[in-house]
């Protein structure tokens, strides 16, 4: 059986080994359908353009909205890196020509781009946790290297940072004016695109970008599972999920035919073309408005793209129904969620460290977290996606804390499995923090259907 090389969204949801944690992926569902613009049937090109997330007018967002007697205590931000150059090459074709040097007056533009370039090019003087020190602080190749962040990717995160700054710093005063290094918690995988995306977001966010106060920790696993990565049952769910994908692909004769046609165009065996994950490269052509590659045998075209993209969307749909990915996600996302509620609990006790946490990550990081939280309608993480946990204190009852969850600016708190019945049971306007704690400490394991009540048991239970 072929593993995780053929293009399908869900396969890339899955870090096959910790080394391969930049794996990419491609499809999403809007959380709240927008009746004005949403096409009645799934349109693969519309989906792909949402995935590109091309920077345009600043978006409306729901971050920071709470009744006036609530005080913002801490914020935990999970991002996917911004737009990047493909990780795969379509065999025997010319790579898309995209310039990964940053040019302040070129589109896409951001008012802070020029200052960001000059700040980064001076070098940090900051010491990051090894091996991050060896990574470049900004993209700078005239022809992008594989997987390199593009100018679009930098601008997407400058925009995210600016948006969060306007809400969390200017409006809610989350950090004091004389903020210190220990009030931030910053963590990234060891890829230049995640480090650079994190730096761009912070540059847009912080009132004074002081290298002495910026320390990134290195996370070797795309699941951000730190010391808790060994989980055999999680891997069993993963193998079953990959088998499900493989069987779905075998049933799709139009997909096979499309790969066959494309393989003829580029003159390689079909299997080799599929292994080159052509959708990754084609999405780059689409996001950057570069025409698809041609050879003397013809051109790869939009119809080919639509067939592969449509299969991905169908794969996502079946993935949600079959629930194998959910099992993988509950175990895969537990360590990072557990770490996050630990940080929140310290904040409820009045501790002032780590008020703002940033995890700069991949689609394979965000996707299991979304799935584990029960956000089954959430679209697949687009470039520069952001998932945010906000912790609030009720000023009238200082011992009571609430939580909000936002995905790309949409409040999805009451779509999560731990708070979807809240309105039926409680008149409180916000989701109680203890709901999230109970979910992470207990209900995640209950959802797996076994008798386990903790992570270690659930990861090693016999007879799965």
From TrEMBL:
A Pfam match is: His_Phos_2
Instruction: Set out the biological process GO terms recorded for this chain's protein.
Output: chondroitin sulfate proteoglycan biosynthetic process; glycosaminoglycan biosynthetic process
**Protein localization:** Golgi apparatus membrane
The catalytic activity, as recorded, is: 3-O-[beta-D-GlcA-(1->3)-beta-D-Gal-(1->3)-beta-D-Gal-(1->4)-beta-D-2-O-P-Xyl]-L-seryl-[protein] + H2O = 3-O-(beta-D-GlcA-(1->3)-beta-D-Gal-(1->3)-beta-D-Gal-(1->4)-beta-D-Xyl)-L-seryl-[protein] + phosphate
What is the predominant subcellular site recorded for this chain?
Golgi
Coiled-coil stretches are none
How is this protein annotated for GO cellular component?
Answer: Golgi membrane
The alphabetical list of record keywords is: Glycoprotein, Golgi apparatus, Hydrolase, Membrane, Signal-anchor, Transmembrane, Transmembrane helix
Q: Which GO terms describe its molecular function?
A: phosphatase activity
Q: Which InterPro entries match?
A: His_Pase_clade-2, His_PPase_superfam, Histidine_acid_phosphatase
Reply yes or no: does the keyword Ribonucleoprotein apply. no
Give the bilayer topology: Single-pass type II membrane protein
PANTHER family in the record, alphabetically? 2-PHOSPHOXYLOSE PHOSPHATASE 1 (PTHR11567:SF110), ACID PHOSPHATASE-RELATED (PTHR11567)
Q: How does it assemble?
A: Interacts with B3GAT3; the interaction increases the 2-phosphoxylose phosphatase activity of PXYLP1 during completion of linkage region formation in a B3GAT3-mediated manner.
Please describe what this protein does: Responsible for the 2-O-dephosphorylation of xylose in the glycosaminoglycan-protein linkage region of proteoglycans thereby regulating the amount of mature glycosaminoglycan (GAG) chains. Sulfated glycosaminoglycans (GAGs), including heparan sulfate and chondroitin sulfate, are synthesized on the so-called common GAG-protein linkage region (GlcUAbeta1-3Galbeta1-3Galbeta1-4Xylbeta1-O-Ser) of core proteins, which is formed by the stepwise addition of monosaccharide residues by the respective specific glycosyltransferases.
Report the family membership. Answer: Belongs to the histidine acid phosphatase family.
Q: What is this protein called?
A: 2-phosphoxylose phosphatase 1
Species name: Rhinopithecus bieti
